[in-house]
Task: inverse folding
């Protein structure tokens, strides 16, 4: 159980039982309601990197659903909650599906737009009481107790807050959670590890909307009346401010931020008019200035400062033992594992890869070399599905036959058995080495998508987590990074980060490993260790295709080499054959006759 | 709806469309140069309109105090930066007096002029000039205070700051102008009768000025050095920096242009509609919808999108006036849908 939560609960429970002034209870209720919404924003904005200014509209959906059903048809609040959740989920799914695929700034702009239109809709629909809203909402009845005052609602609100905190924390510490956290590292790496980033984005958008809806439901039954004002764009922006001020990347930041902003607002609204002698929304000015200064000076928010005073979060550890994950059947040695057949790629008028054909056999190490700009990395991107081929075919040995993979997106290709590393390291610097590598095992989780998410929220995923982390730990031991499992990945040397990417690729359980300059930045001994590791993998039947500039390294390691220049293959053969091939020598050194042209 | 009503609605739609188009251009300009999605653009419209209204009714425009205050803050910012940085300290003898002149003395003079002359009935041209002199400097001053320290920040951080700036300016707007609305006298009351149509001169003026400004912007970007520098920064910030075009000066310039366009829009629409301290926000956002229709990247498409927004708003105010805002802002959703269907590939943006 979470230590912080345990110390927090007695204070929470004691507050309304003691003769606390009613006004404090009211403030605490509002803090709780805001915190639930801000918590969704932490998940969405701070961790997932998507920004929404329109959460207040989802709060409104939750509040108006129960208010309308309750006042018009006498429906029980609990059914009102269900209806609100269903309506919100459907709305968020629709909005998410159309905006999540777009790059960064369209989403926040879209949220501003529909935040406004929902507000005007609430204010203009006759059956929702126009700008007067709906009154006379029934109180919630919980096990026969009518929660008809602030003090009794307090328990329900803070129970909801605590459950929401637990749920979000559990979700983040799971396989899905790692995929959510991987969004901030760009979609390329996450997709290459098999994560459906669009689905994950929609997922966190829906979860954040549902949290907002729950807050709205509680709000409606706390005040027993709704009108459009608290669901306008301005309030939506304030929710975002709360998350950012508290620390948008931290679950507890949501609580801190909503508490601070609520208290500050209360103080400012009584203090500032006294000081300035005029009525106006000065609190808005102060909030705005505070926000600007905070983002300039401490974009992480205030929670990190507070956290230093408490014990740090305990790191995720490798379990002592776990069930080994199921492994892929490796093809028999000598069978063709990868076949590139007349593959071409053009970007507008530029041909980056032209009619490339080569094969990689099971258990073979093939070096792909060529001068800078020869098209090696583009070739890699074609094989791994980052870029679609313009023409030609790429086939992979999968389920016993050669199957075309050139039409598949990256995340499907990794499922077929291609693991890769990147030329420019792509990792999540603030996450531990172990968790970074565990992202590689994303596709090897047992649970299906929705069931898996539900299981992680309810913490029924322990066994799966242990297995995945155990596998990540095993692969890290194997590549020689066993001593740095709990360090932040960003603190590793560049050479170690490249090795870490290999461990991550191994977690995909690949039959073909694509390594883009794995030896760059390594010292001599580390290179030896890497060569030994690649030999071991070869012995297990894994095929390896590597791009490498270190000629000594690649010629001693590779069984065969493919040489590219200007997007085409100019030579292929054993390292010895290639090294004496006049075309290759010319490509690398320039021939005597046309030195000026090729240099 | 008969023809004459349709024609009147079209006239209104085109007039407000012209305003939205100017704002959309400013938004595209600011976004492409600084990556700031400039939500407070509309505040310049409101400030421009209300300042002009104050001057016309011979009242002291409180916005002059804001310009003065912003100038003072920027001077302080420069002072602190100079004291903290040895490199800057070496030039302090020259740079600080210059900063004092630019950020303290000039706003003071402006403030003095307003104090002395605002009670007199100034000729309309001078009122317009004074309004611009008060509102336009707010653009670069706000940029220096809020955005310049965040040159390397992500689009999302800049967007949140932009929203925060909007909050601050709205709050200040209430403080300066109060809750009362204002409307200025039109520059001309004339009406032309074209067949069954009556066309108001003010509408024509708005459209003509908007077209002239668009032409001026075009000439500026195509034929002047600083215009080309802005375009260079917009297409590649790093490349522009390598040839000596700093991101910060380009940003200030973009904000100056944006504030100019905003203030002019304010002066243009003040006779057509009653403006309140917070009216600018919705007007600016409609400019936004126009810019988004054009994909936030293309000037002509943004202008066309804004025109469409104006027409849509005008006709929907006839058919379903209560829902006109709902209709205008919901229009963004099919546009986003269309854009998302057109870009099916992953964006392999760099995580940096």
Result:
């Amino acid at each position: 159980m979470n230590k912080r939560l345990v110390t927090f609960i007695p204070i929470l429970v004691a507050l309304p039982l003691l003769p606390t002034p009613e006004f404090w209870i009211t403030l605490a209720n509002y803090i709780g309601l805001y915190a639930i919404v801000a918590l969704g924003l932490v998940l969405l904005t701070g961790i997932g990197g998507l920004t929404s200014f329109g959460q207040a509209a989802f709060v409104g959906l939750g509040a108006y659903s129960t208010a309308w059903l309750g006042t018009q048809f006498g429906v029980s609040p609990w059914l009102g909650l269900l209806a609100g959740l269903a309506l919100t989920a459907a709305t968020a799914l629709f909005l998410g599906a159309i905006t999540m695929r777009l790059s960064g700034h369209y989403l926040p702009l879209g949220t501003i737009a529909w935040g406004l239109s929902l507000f005007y809709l609430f204010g203009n629909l006759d059956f929702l009481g126009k700008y007067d809203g709906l009154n006379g909402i029934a109180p919630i009845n919980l096990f026969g107790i009518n929660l008809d005052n602030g003090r009794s609602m307090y328990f329900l609100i803070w129970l909801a807050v605590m459950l929401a905190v637990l749920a979000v924390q559990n979700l983040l510490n799971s396989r899905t959670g790692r995929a959510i956290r991987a969004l901030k590292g760009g979609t390329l790496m996450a997709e290459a590890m098999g994560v459906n980033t669009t689905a994950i984005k929609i997922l966190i958008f829906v979860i954040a909307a549902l949290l907002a809806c729950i807050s709205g439901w509680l709000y409606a039954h706390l005040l027993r009346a709704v009108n459009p004002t608290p669901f306008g764009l301005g309030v939506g922006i304030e929710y975002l401010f709360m998350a950012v001020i508290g620390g948008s990347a931290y679950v507890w930041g949501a609580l801190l931020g909503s508490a601070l902003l609520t208290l500050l607002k209360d103080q400012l609204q009584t203090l500032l008019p006294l000081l300035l002698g005029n009525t106006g929304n000065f609190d808005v000015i102060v909030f705005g200035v505070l926000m600007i200064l905070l983002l300039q000076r401490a974009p992480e928010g205030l929670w990190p400062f507070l956290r230093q005073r408490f014990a740090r979060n305990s790191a995720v550890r490798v379990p002592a033992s776990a069930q080994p994950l199921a492994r892929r059947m490796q093809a028999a040695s000598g069978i063709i594992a990868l076949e590139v057949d007349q593959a071409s790629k053009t970007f507008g008028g530029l041909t980056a890869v032209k009619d490339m054909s080569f094969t990689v056999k099971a258990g073979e190490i093939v070096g792909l070399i060529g001068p800078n700009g020869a098209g090696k990395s583009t070739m890699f991107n074609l094989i791994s599905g980052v870029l679609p081929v313009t023409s030609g075919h790429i086939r992979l040995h999968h389920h016993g036959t050669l199957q075309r993979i050139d039409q598949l997106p990256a995340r499907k290709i990794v499922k077929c058995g291609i693991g890769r590393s990147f030329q420019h390291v792509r990792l999540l610097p603030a996450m531990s080495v172990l968790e970074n590598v565990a992202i590689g095992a994303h596709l090897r989780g047992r649970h299906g998508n929705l069931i898996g998410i539900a299981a992680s929220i309810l913490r029924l995923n322990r066994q799966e987590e242990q297995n995945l982390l155990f596998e990540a730990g095993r692969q890290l031991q194997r590549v020689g990074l066993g001593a740095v499992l709990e360090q932040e990945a960003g603190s590793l040397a560049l050479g170690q980060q490249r090795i870490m990417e290999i461990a991550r690729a191994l977690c995909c359980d690949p039959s073909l490993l694509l390594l883009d300059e794995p030896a760059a930045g390594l010292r001599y001994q580390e290179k030896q260790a890497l060569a030994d590791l690649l030999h071991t993998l070869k012995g297990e039947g894994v095929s390896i295709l590597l791009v490498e500039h270190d000629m000594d390294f690649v010629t001693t390691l590779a069984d065969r080499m493919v040489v590219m220049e200007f997007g085409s293959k100019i030579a292929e053969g054993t390292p010895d054959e290639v090294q004496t091939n006049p075309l290759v020598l010319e490509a690398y050194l320039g021939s005597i006759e046309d030195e000026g042209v090729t240099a | 709806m008969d023809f004459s009503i349709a024609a009147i609605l079209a006239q209104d739609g085109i007039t407000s469309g012209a305003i939205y188009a100017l704002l959309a251009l400013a938004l595209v300009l600011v976004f492409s140069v600084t990556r700031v999605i400039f939500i407070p653009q509309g505040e310049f419209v409101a400030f421009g309109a209300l300042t002009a209204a104050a001057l016309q009714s011979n009242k002291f425009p409180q916005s002059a105090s804001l310009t003065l205050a912003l100038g003072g803050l920027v001077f302080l910012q420069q002072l602190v930066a100079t004291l903290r940085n040895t490199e800057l300290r070496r030039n302090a003898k020259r740079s600080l007096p210059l900063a004092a002149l630019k950020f303290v003395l000039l706003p003071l003079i402006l403030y003095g002029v307003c104090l002395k002359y605002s009670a007199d009935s100034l000729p309309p041209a001078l009122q317009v000039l004074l309004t611009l002199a008060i509102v336009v400097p707010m653009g670069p001053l706000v940029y220096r205070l809020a955005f310049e320290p965040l040159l390397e920040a992500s689009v999302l951080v800049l967007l949140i700051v932009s929203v925060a700036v909007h909050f601050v300016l709205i709050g200040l707007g209430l403080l300066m102008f109060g809750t009362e609305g204002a409307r200025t006298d039109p520059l001309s009351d004339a009406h032309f009768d074209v067949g069954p149509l009556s066309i108001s001169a003010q509408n024509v003026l708005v459209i003509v000025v908007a077209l002239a400004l668009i032409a001026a912007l075009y000439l500026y970007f195509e034929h002047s050095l600083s215009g080309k520098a802005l375009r260079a920064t917009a297409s590649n910030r790093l490349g522009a920096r390598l040839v000596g075009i700093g991101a910060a000066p380009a940003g200030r310039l973009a904000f100056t242009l944006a504030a100019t366009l905003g203030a002019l829009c304010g002066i243009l629409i003040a006779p057509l509609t009653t403006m309140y301290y917070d009216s600018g926000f919705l007007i600016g956002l409609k400019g936004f919808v126009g810019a988004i229709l054009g994909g936030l990247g293309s000037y002509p498409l943004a202008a066309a999108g804004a025109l469409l927004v104006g027409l849509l708003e005008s006709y929907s105010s006839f058919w379903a006036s209560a829902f006109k805002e709902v209709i205008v802002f919901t229009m963004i959703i099919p546009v986003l849908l269309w854009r998302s269907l057109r870009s099916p590939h992953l964006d392999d943006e760099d995580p940096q």
Remarks:
- Chain A touches chain B through 58 residues (CB under 8 Å).
- Chain A has three domains: 12-307, 328-417+510-599, 427-507.
- Residues 328-417+510-599 of chain A form a domain with the Rossmann fold fold (CATH 3.40.50.300).
- The longest strand of chain A covers residues 336-347.
